[in-house]
Specification:
This protein is of the alpha/beta class and 361 residues long. It is 38% helix and 17% strand. It contains 13 helices and twelve strands. The strands form three sheets. It has an eight-stranded mixed sheet with strand order 3-4-8-5-9-12-10-11, sandwiched between helices. A two-stranded antiparallel ribbon has the order 1-2. Strands 6-7 form a two-stranded antiparallel ribbon. Helix 5 packs across helix 13. The longest helix has 18 residues. The protein binds zinc ion. The site of zinc ion has 4 residues, from loops.
C-alpha cells in the first residue's frame, strides 16, 4: 500500500528501458520523472540504475482523515518527487512519533508555516502540505502559484512547513491511536464530561495544550486557564507544568530559534480570523501584511480574545523575534471541521500563504 500514500516507487532500469517506456508503464509523465531524477541523462540509462518514479496522482490527499503516519508518508513522498525539498525530523512527540519539517525554496526570506498544534484542527495539516506540493509541482512545471511564478517564490523565500505539530493528538482524534494510549486519554477526558471525546481533544497525549506552552505571558495564561478549571491535564486549555515542557512545543521552539525566520504562520481552525498582535502591539510591517492576508482570504484581521491572548506560538514569536507572525483561524463551524470544507479552506488560503511567503517589499 505504501506507494499509494507516498506516491512514488523505485524502479530498477532493465535492458532496453527508456524513460518513455517507464513513464508509460507507471502512468506518469516524462516531466515528473525528470523532476524526481535531476541527475539522470535520459539518453544514457544503464541497466541496474535506480530511478524514482512519481505515480500519476498528487501526494497530498484531502479526502481522507489524516494521521501521523500519513503526514510522514506525504513528507517522504514529496521529498522523493521533488529532490530539492529538504525533509527533517525536528523532534518527537510524547509517544515518540516524529515531528517533521519540509523545507522548500532558496531565497533569503525565511518563513515557517505550522499546522495542527491542536489535535481536532488536523485539517490544517493537509492544507499546508497541499501548499508545499502545489509550490513544488509549479516549480517543476514552470507554472505560477496565485499569479506569481513559482520560480520567483522559490528565489525570494525559503518556507519550512511543519504540518503536524501534534501527531499523537491527531491520531487520537482521527482514530489512529491504539491502546493503551486511547484509554489513558479517555481517563483524562472523563474529568471534562462537557468536552466531546475524542472530537473535542486539542491537547497532546500528556493533556497539555501545545499552543499554551510558549514563554510569552505563560503565567498569565496559567492564571486565566486555572481560573476556568483547567489546572491539570485536560483535553484542552491546560498550560502544562512549565513553559515548553511538552516535547512537541519544545521541538518547534528550538527549530524556530535555529531558523530565525522573518515570518511565522500558525494554522488553526476555526473562525475566519487572523490574529496579529501580542498584548496589543505588533512588530513593524505586521498590519500592512496582515491586511493583505485578510484581503486574499476574506478573513478578518483582528484581535485575539483576551482569554487566548497569551503563551501561543505566534505570541512568543512576536515577543522574542520582533517580526510579523500570524495565527490563522481558518474556516468556520465546529471543530473538527469536516473534510467537505477542505476545498473552501484551500481557496481562501492559497493566496494567504503566497502573500505571507513573499512578505511586503
Ligand atoms: Zn487551535
Amino acid at each position: 500500500m505504501t506507494p499509494w500514500f507516498t506516491g512514488f516507487v523505485r524502479h530498477t532500469v532493465a535492458p532496453g528501458d527508456t524513460l518513455w517506456r517507464i513513464a508509460w508503464h507507471y502512468g506518469t509523465t516524462l516531466s515528473a520523472l525528470d523532476a524526481a531524477n535531476p541527475d539522470t541523462d535520459p539518453f544514457d540509462l544503464r541497466p541496474g540504475q535506480r530511478l524514482t518514479v512519481p505515480l500519476g496522482f498528487p501526494v497530498t490527499p484531502a479526502d481522507i482523515p489524516w494521521c501521523s503516519a500519513l503526514a510522514e508518508y506525504c513528507v517522504r513522498g514529496l521529498a522523493a518527487r521533488y529532490p530539492w525539498l529538504i525533509e527533517e525530523r525536528i523532534g518527537e512527540s510524547a509517544l515518540g512519533r516524529p515531528v517533521y519539517a519540509l523545507t522548500a525554496g532558496d531565497g533569503p526570506r525565511r518563513c515557517v508555516f505550522t499546522a495542527a498544534h491542536h489535535a481536532n484542527e488536523w485539517i490544517t495539516a493537509p492544507l499546508v502540505m497541499k501548499y508545499a506540493e502545489t509550490l513544488a509541482a509549479a516549480l517543476a512545471a514552470g507554472e505560477q502559484v496565485y499569479g506569481v511564478p513559482a520560480e520567483e517564490i522559490n528565489f525570494r523565500t525559503r518556507i519550512s512547513f511543519v504540518p503536524m505539530v501534534n501527531p499523537d493528538g491527531v491520531d487520537l482524534v482521527t482514530g489512529a491511536l491504539g491502546e493503551p494510549y486511547r484509554s489513558r486519554a479517555g481517563d483524562i477526558a472523563r474529568g471534562w464530561p462537557s468536552i466531546p471525546f475524542p472530537e473535542g481533544w486539542k491537547a497532546n497525549l500528556q493533556g497539555v495544550d501545545l499552543n499554551l506552552q510558549y514563554p510569552a505571558g505563560w503565567e498569565a495564561a496559567r492564571a486565566i486557564k486555572t481560573a476556568q478549571g483547567f489546572d491539570r491535564p485536560a483535553p484542552r486549555d491546560y498550560v502544562g507544568p512549565a513553559p515548553l515542557s511538552a516535547p512537541e512545543s519544545s521541538a518547534l521552539a528550538k527549530f524556530t530559534e535555529a531558523l530565525d525566520p522573518d515570518l511565522v504562520l500558525a494554522y488553526h481552525t476555526q473562525g475566519e480570523a487572523i490574529y496579529w498582535q501580542f498584548m496589543g502591539s505588533a512588530p513593524p510591517g505586521s498590519r500592512e501584511l496582515g491586511l493583505r492576508l485578510a484581503a486574499a482570504s476574506g478573513y478578518a484581521l483582528t484581535e485575539a480574545p483576551y482569554d487566548s491572548g497569551f503563551a501561543g506560538y505566534k505570541d512568543w514569536f512576536l515577543q522574542d523575534f520582533g517580526r510579523p507572525g500570524f495565527t490563522v483561524e481558518a474556516g468556520s463551524g465546529e471543530n473538527p471541521l469536516p473534510l467537505s470544507d477542505f476545498d473552501s479552506l484551500w481557496e481562501a488560503n492559497l493566496g494567504l500563504m503566497t502573500l505571507a511567503a513573499l512578505g511586503v517589499e
